[in-house]
Amino acid sequence: MATDVQVPALGESITEGTLAQWLKKPGEAVAADEPIASLETDKVSVEVPSPVAGVLTEQLVQEGDTVAVGAAIARIDQGATASAPAAAAPPTTNPAGAGETPALRGDEHAPEPAREAETSAADEGDSITTLSPAVRRAVLEYHVDPSKIRGSGKDGRLTKDDVIAAAQGKTAAPAAPTPPPTAKAPAAPSAGAAPAAPSAPARSGERREERVKMSRLRQTIAKRLKDAQNTAAMLTTFNDVDMSAVIDARARYKDLFEKKHGIRLGFMAFFVKACALAAKDVPSVNASLEGDEIVYHDYLDVSVAVSAPKGLVVPVVRDADQMSFAEIEKAIAAYGKKAKEGTLTADDMAGGTFTISNGGVFGSLLSTPIINPPQSAVLGMHRIEERPVAKDGQVVIRPMMYLALSYDHRLIDGREAVTFVVRVKEAIEDPTRLLIDL
């Protein structure tokens, strides 16, 4: 019995997506709930599971096609048995080539190159096909064989970090030794001798270009950011903060914190709590503009900007003002892991009343972050560096960080924006304020 595989619900306000990759080929067996394709939406990549167990008999759309929610993209023959893979069929023999190759290589026991290449290519193709979009992209980018990499993800699945580590020679299985050349190449060719044909494909200094279609996520990011610039009356105010107290607190309690809560104590939890405290004094920073109305929120849902394989995404830590330090750190760590694995959902990024972006992890000293509509403000954190500052009439060295608050001047006055940043600065320089709500 044939069963159609339909595009699942992709999240609030998302009605269509792009079929980015087929994870199963026609004729392959699939289990119930096993992903058979990957869809790319405006926000995230979503895997389409098979509703039944059986054999994939037909792909109704091609990679790159736009598909609507509820549309059929494939058919599954429920209860059918998969046919034998094409790679298992005996390869076409070539007596002349098979007989000549060992003699040319000087190795009577050398394998047939044609057959070896076919098998290797088939294995690599099958391996790449079953990978997630982020991992597949990394495999193609770093030119590694996924079948020789040990996965560290769930059920032994490969992650992007596994691929990068393998490319750097850390976790990849040792490749089969290459047969030694029959003769050493001379340091310089003798007079009249023809130079050997080069084996490297690219010449030094060769100029190349590559055209790659923008993904739906990249297109959406570009549109939203440009809309924010065109719509909001955006302005940025700056301040710097002495990180000594937070660094000392982390150094003093990090071991006890990790032992009790099973998560490392980071800087982000301090800033989330500081922003929650400051938002009580300046509620317009946590508000949004809808038409001619200002919507004030009595809760703080913080969008935390994290880097994903296909661009910047902003999953939401909900009710952050009510969470403990440990709960904040665990939520952020979970989102960071999902972002790297490409498993964030549209629900993870829906909503958000305020954004914190940490460019410091990439080495940024100073920036002007862009508002994430319909929010009215975003706080940019930056790298910590020791700088000379004046304290009590003397020049001392302190670990300093620049803070940048970009805000919509249509509903936030300059006084309010500066007050908010100063409140965050005071809480970071004296974390006791976070405990006594001051």
Mean pLDDT: 79
CATH homologous superfamily label of the largest domain: Chloramphenicol acetyltransferase-like domain
Low-confidence runs of at least 5 consecutive residues: 84-129, 170-178, 181-194
Shape: globular
Number of self-contained structural domains: 3
The name CATH uses for the topology of the largest domain is Chloramphenicol Acetyltransferase
Secondary-structure element series: EEEEEEEEHHHHHEHHEEEEEHHEEEEHH
| Category by helix and strand content | alpha+beta
Strand content: 15-25%
Number of beta strands: 18
Instruction: Give me the CATH architecture of the largest domain, please.
Output: 2-Layer Sandwich
Radius of gyration: 28 Å
CATH class wording of the largest domain = Alpha Beta
Q: What share of residues is helical? A: 25-40%
What does this structure look like?
It contains eleven helices and 18 strands. The model is unreliable at 84-129, 170-178 and 181-194 (pLDDT under 50). The protein has helices at 95-105, 113-129, 133-142, 160-167, 216-231, 244-261, 267-281, 325-341, 346-349, 414-429, 432-436, and strands spanning 2-6, 16-22, 29-30, 35-40, 45-49, 54-59, 66-68, 72-78, 234-242, 288-290, 293-295, 302-308, 311-313, 316-317, 354-358, 377-381, 385-391, 394-408. Strands 9, 12, 13, 14, 15, 16, 17 and 18 form an eight-stranded mixed β-sheet that branches. A four-stranded antiparallel β-sheet has the order 1-8-6-3, with no helix packed on it. The chain has 438 residues and is an alpha+beta fold. It has three domains: 2-78, Beta Barrel (OB fold (Dihydrolipoamide Acetyltransferase, E2P)); 106-175, Dihydrolipoamide Transferase (Irregular), CATH 4.10.320; 217-436, Chloramphenicol acetyltransferase-like domain (Chloramphenicol Acetyltransferase). Helix 3 (133-142) packs parallel to helix 4 and helix 7 crosses helix 8.
